[in-house]
Specification:
alpha+beta; Creatine Amidinohydrolase, Chain A, domain 1; Creatine Amidinohydrolase; six-stranded mixed β-sheet; 17 strands; about 30% helix; elongated
Amino acid sequence: MQITPLKELQDRVRNLQRRLQEESLDGALITQKMDLYYFAGSMQNGFLFVPAGQAPLYMVRRNYQRALKESGWEKVLPLKNWGQLSEYLQDYLQKSPKNIGLELDILPVNQYRQLLQIFPGVKFVDISTMIREIRMIKSEYELSCFRQADRIAADIYRKIPGLLEVGKSEIELAAEIETLYRKAGHQGILRMRGFNMEMLFGHAYFGENGDMSTFLDSCTGGEGVTTACPQGSGWRKLNPHEPVGLDYGSVYGGYVLDHTRVFSLGSLPPELEEAYAVALDIQEEVISRAAPGVLCGELYRLALEIATDRGLGDFFMGYKDRKVKFIGHGLGLDLDEFPLLSQVSKHVLQPGMVFALEPKFIFPGKGMLGLENVWHVTEKGVEKITSMPDDLVVVPLK
């Protein structure tokens, strides 16, 4: 079992404590499971209290024994009920806290009300943006997880052409690809922080199903096998000369490497091949401009300008009212981290950021053409983490 090194946890908590002190907060009470995992090394049900100037206190409702094994912190205590929270904090701090940070972007209202009752007189402050900004800058340990996820993805990528057959359904192909990922240690889920956002391994879609969007903040989504889960692979059969879109997340140690490639059995129509070439050009231009200090919104505008100048603006990142207003997003333990490369983003590229860039075109009745790669912002520019070739893969018909 992979255990987050204690030094990694200590560095993360120091970054949080620095921000807490800047905001004059006594501490942070963390309960969102991926924030717990990030700061505690465990996501067992409970709360991690990070004081502004002391070691953290991990209070666990379920499963306490697993938390003891998973977390590197010394102070891990069983939590029988929420009422114990105030007792633990009072004893640990030797005083009553006055200002506590909470993840108010995800905390249910009923739980917030319970905390108000448990901590009368305490002022609660939203620190969700603070936490997301801390998680936005990746350490060398986190980068090593991305690189291992890439090695897994690259190995599976090489096997995909041999899986493509005329008449095979989307769900059959998805099952074969996802079996390869599971055998390589994929956790079986891609986590998202956004409300009501969810995803399994990713999406596989053929032809016109590539222009089918859904509730996700994505220009693609797929048909799915049921309206109870309206995304991902469906029952459509593969035909020659149509795009096969594969948008998957390879995962290692919880870290998601989001990548998209397009395959086809036999050549695609010239206009679709041209769209893919434009997507490659957009990637090249955006990455040539990407560097520390560059505003993410400027990169979005550059991508849109290129697509428009090449006559494909109407199809860029969706079609008509189904467009999304971004070309990339941060990655980490969640699929939707900071920074956001969007029309209105105020994020500025900084060394240590990791983001997915995904220039895509959606053609009604024909499908999706584009690609997605993962990039790491360095002191001098950006480096590509995704190692699989960028080319459109045309598999000869048998």
